[in-house]
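Need a sequence for this fold. Nothing fancy.
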């Protein structure tokens, strides 16, 4: 086994059911006789071990002769069946976004950090930190009754109106309905209806906890452009003057909860990276196994040594019965077998990466959002890699950097309802900007996105994230909105028949990589 084939070692270990730490693979690859070392490591690990650790390999290397003892089975048999990994190429879009400091050069971190291995890889997990806020797994209180809708809307209004109260001096709808004509008034409410008048002006009905009040936006005002951005049930504030009969408010200005323009994102204190992916779709005939393997193998290389986190934003598997005729394109028809296969593919990802996973609409959890994290049965199936499993959406804080993970089903709706310059499949990050502006991941009730009424509205973005990570639309796109990095992460599934029929051309086999110390991003292509 040539020394430069850590990828083969990973494959050989995975084929024996093991996940491995990167440093463990590096040590095996660098040993005098990697095939022998590999065999001895596999023979010496405890029966219940799922992961080959650096310590396992060190013990073997310390205790034994490096030469091939007679009768030792060679590991190169199954390993060499796999083609050598081809070098991953950067895409033409790999320039860092934003104008912040350039990425640190390789090696800089290793000089600073005594816990780095010879290859420069951080082996000191105490430098890492991973916190989850907002995980609603096991917290669901919804019964689907009318009272739940009242509660969730009340909570939404509370949370979002608080963000707007500093900007307007609002009065309740009921109080405004008692004011006299010609007076100035300010109102915060959820959008209950938007309709146009015969002469092309707009009437927006805004609802708060006391009632509903109609607000008129004249078509020739600058703010008329904002009307095309409105989604039902989002929260906005308006300022204006009451009509002569006090029956309607003529709107002069309109405000969204929004992210402050001057928002200063948090960054990590050291050079560390996270890979942001989604939509793996294992079990689909279109799952791109080759691209996935190249990605997993690349994660074991020196180029990826700073990647310590892997975030997967939903659609781990293709699922069963998600769309009509989906079964015709299934490679694995049993949902649990799909998760077993997914778990096998996770094994080829370095064991020393911290993984965070949320479900998507193809996963085996309830479809309505917020979606709880995978149940114990599925967690058991996926236990090879000790991933953090949390709900969709979740706010994940990595070394101080707040990452809002959301699968992204509402993006379809934002794209369908807003003008194409504001949201399109070709620029999915712009649809994400709209959600940031509304400070809600899925505002619209009763539409395409199914929402479950809970006591609290988990879908409000109470805190501004530093990074907003979504998937679902299978398109790659990223950019900054008021300094927040929005990333929609593409997929690992080639074009399906449905996508062909509606001209969706997915971005498959890309891995966006974010520097947590600068929020700069690069993209790697593996397809
Ligand atoms: O979604 C992938 C993308 O394709 C997302 O934008 C929805 C869309 N899509 C895929 N299949 C269908 C069908 N059958 N109907 C409507 N929209 C579809 P994903 O969640 O991976 O299926
Ligand atoms: Fe998907
Ligand atoms: Zn999806």
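Here you go.
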């Amino acid at each position: 086994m040539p020394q430069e084939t850590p990828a083969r070692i990973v494959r050989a270990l995975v084929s024996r059911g093991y996940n491995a730490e990167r440093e463990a693979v590096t040590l095996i690859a660098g040993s005098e006789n990697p095939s022998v070392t590999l065999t001895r490591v596999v023979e010496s690990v405890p029966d219940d071990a799922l992961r080959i650790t650096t310590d396992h390999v060190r013990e073997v290397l310390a205790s034994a002769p490096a030469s091939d003892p007679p009768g030792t089975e060679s590991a190169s048999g199954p390993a060499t069946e796999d083609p050598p990994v081809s070098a991953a190429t950067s895409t033409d879009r790999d320039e860092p976004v934003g104008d912040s400091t350039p990425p640190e050069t390789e090696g800089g971190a290793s000089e600073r950090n005594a816990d780095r291995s010879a290859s420069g890889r951080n082996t000191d997990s105490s430098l890492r930190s991973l916190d989850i806020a907002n995980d609603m797994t096991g917290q669901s209180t919804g019964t689907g009754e009318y009272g739940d809708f009242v509660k969730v809307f009340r909570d939404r209004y509370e949370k979002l109106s608080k963000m707007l109260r500093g900007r307007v001096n609002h009065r309740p709808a009921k109080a405004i309905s008692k004011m006299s004509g010609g007076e100035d008034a300010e109102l915060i409410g959820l959008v209950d209806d938007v309709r146009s008048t015969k002469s092309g002006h707009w009437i927006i009905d805004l609802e708060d906890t006391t009632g509903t009040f109609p607000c008129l936006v004249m078509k020739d005002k600058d703010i008329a452009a904002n009307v095309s951005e409105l989604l039902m049930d989002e929260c906005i504030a308006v300022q204006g003057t009451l009509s002569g009969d006090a029956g309607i408010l003529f709107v002069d200005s309109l405000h969204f909860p929004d992210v402050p323009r001057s928002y200063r994102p948090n960054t990590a204190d050291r050079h560390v990276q996270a890979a942001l992916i989604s939509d793996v779709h294992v079990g689909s005939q279109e799952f791109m196994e080759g691209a996935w393997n190249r990605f997993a193998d690349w994660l074991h290389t020196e180029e990826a040594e700073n990647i310590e986190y892997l975030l997967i934003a939903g659609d781990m598997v293709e699922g069963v019965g998600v769309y009509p005729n989906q079964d015709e394109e299934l490679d694995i028809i049993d949902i649990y077998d799909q998760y077993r296969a997914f778990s096998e593919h996770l094994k080829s990802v370095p064991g020393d990466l911290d993984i965070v996973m949320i479900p998507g609409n193809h996963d085996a959890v309830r479809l309505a959002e917020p979606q709880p994290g995978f149940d114990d049965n599925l967690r058991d199936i996926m236990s090879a890699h000790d991933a953090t499993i949390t709900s969709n959406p979740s706010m994940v804080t990595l070394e101080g950097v707040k990452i809002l993970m959301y699968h992204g089903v509402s993006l379809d709706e934002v794209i369908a309802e807003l003008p194409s310059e504001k949201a399109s499949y070709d620029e999915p990050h712009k649809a994400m900007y709209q959600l940031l502006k509304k400070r809600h991941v899925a505002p619209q009730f009763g539409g395409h996105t199914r929402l479950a009424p809970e006591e609290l509205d988990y879908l409000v973005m109470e805190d501004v994230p530093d990074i907003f990570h979504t998937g679902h639309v299978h398109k790659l796109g990223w950019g900054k909105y008021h300094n927040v990095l929005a990333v929609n992460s593409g997929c690992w599934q080639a074009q399906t028949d449905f996508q062909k029929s509606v001209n969706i051309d997915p971005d498959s086999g890309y891995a966006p990589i974010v520097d947590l110390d600068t929020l700069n991003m690069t993209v790697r292509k593996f397809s």
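For context: The CA atoms of residues 200 and 219 lie 6 Å apart.
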